[in-house]
Amino acid sequence: MTLLSNTDIILVRHFFNPVVSGQYAALSLMGKAIFVLHNTSTYSFLPGYGIKKERKERLFRTLMLASGIVVGISAILSAVYFIVPELVLKVFLPEA
Q1: Which helix (H) or strand (E) holds 31?
Q2: Which DSSP string corresponds to 40-90?
Q3: Domain range holding 55?
Q4: Of 14, 35, 49, 51, which sits with the fewest C-beta atoms within 10 Å of its C-beta?
Q5: What is the domain count for the chain?
Q6: Does any domain span residue 10?
Q7: 71 part of a folded domain
């Protein structure tokens, strides 16, 4: 799993100069942070979805709620990245 998630960074580091590959690695890390943060909400909806499916209840509202939360978290974090990029860079790359 680690190899799959880091193959892009390895390839960029091999084919591009150190400055560009460093910038790409930082952006990749920030993008993975968005994925990890909304991934936890997806995992928390999974048991409830399974229970509702077993009880043969309606699943559409639960699916839309989970999708809305994922999109909301991603949109908020993306907006923060664009509104205060200096703060985000200081959080992810404190020595840069």
Answers
A1: helix 18-54
A2: HHHHHHHHHHHHHHHTT---HHHHHHHHHHHHHHHHHHHHHHHH-HHHHHH
A3: 29-92
A4: 14
A5: 1
A6: no
A7: yes
Please tell me the pTM assigned to this model.
0.69
Q: Per residue in 11-21, pLDDT tens?
A: 999 999 998 88
Assess whether pLDDT exceeds 70 at residue 96. no
Rg over CA atoms, the chain: 18
| Spatial separation of the C-alpha atoms in residues 33 and 74, rounded to whole Å | 10
Domain contains 50: yes
| Encoded tokens for 25 | 């690695």
* 65 within a domain of the structure (yes/no): yes
For residues 69 and 40, what is the distance between their CA atoms, to the nearest angstrom?
11
Alpha-carbon distance of 51 to 48, in angstroms, equals: 5
Residues 6+ apart with CB under 8 A from 25: 9, 12, 13
